[in-house]
Amino acid sequence: MSEPTVDAVTLRCRFCKAKNRVPVSRALEDLNKVRCGSCGSGLLRVNGEPLTDLKDEDFSHPWDAAALDKLKAIPMADTVINKLLGSTLDKLTHFNLMAGAVRIGPEQAPRLWKLYLAAAGRIGVDPPPLFLLQDPRPNAFAMGAGSPQVGVTSGLLEIADDPCILGVLGHELTHVRLGHVTYRTLVWLLLTGALKILDLFGLAALVIKPIQIALYRWYQMSELSADRGELLTTGSLETFVRTHMILSGGGGRWLPEMNVAAFIDQAHEAEALRDNDIILWVMELLSSNQRTHPLPVWRVHHGLKWAQTPAFFEILAGTAPEGLLEA
Questions:
Q1: pLDDT one-digit tens code per residue, 96-133
Q2: What is the reported pTM?
Q3: Neighbours of 271 (CB within 10 A)
Q4: Domains of the chain by residue range
């Protein structure tokens, strides 16, 4: 079950301790403009400062946690995924990236490296190695087992501006922070057919259908948690929506004519279509097993819904709201 949304929150200023009633809808128009009525200071941490008090449970989606619990409850699942695959997958992933991509650092694409460090510092993650891959498809990933590694494609950098790239990097680093990477790597092996490598070790037969089904389900839900990390990284709903609009329909010369508000309306309409048709809901769930990511418009709906909850404002404010006010 998702967290309840509210119409307004009361936030205590971190600087002068004054209480401020904040209408949620108005705040979401520009989080940077939410200021204390007494001292004028910004009430929300949306300018890149580290969220030093952030806890995993603060922004992990409940569907993510529930699906992962079901996966771990399957006999042999943890043994196969954690104990038997770890070192082999780490070595293979590292070799493929070192031999076929560009490792980013202070002397290699320093602007991208600076964005990466900013994203990691914002949500409190020790940044693993970052690689840039030549691929026209806009994408990013976090892979590995015991030793995560993050990659972005040239296609993503071509169509996204720096704020969007910052958010995408925060998205992937959220997977790292929440311990998603080992399970997500196994899903990637299943989806791409690369799981055949496990036949060398006699392990493929252990990844039986119940584990696959549970993996696919959790894989989709883990994106909702990472989207929350993306939102927190940039501190901007407009950037979050624009990023997913670009990933859905591309950028380039058409981007100036694309409308964020219209895309939000589409996201809510798409969710309503699924909610009101049980057959559509079931068919979408089944088809999602073959996609590397959930439908991006659907994810926008859930990201924006979380932004209307007390938890979202509590994280950005740095202190818990003194109370909730329903308009």
A1: 999 999 999 999 999 999 999 999 999 999 999 999 99
A2: 0.89
A3: 17
A4: 8-325
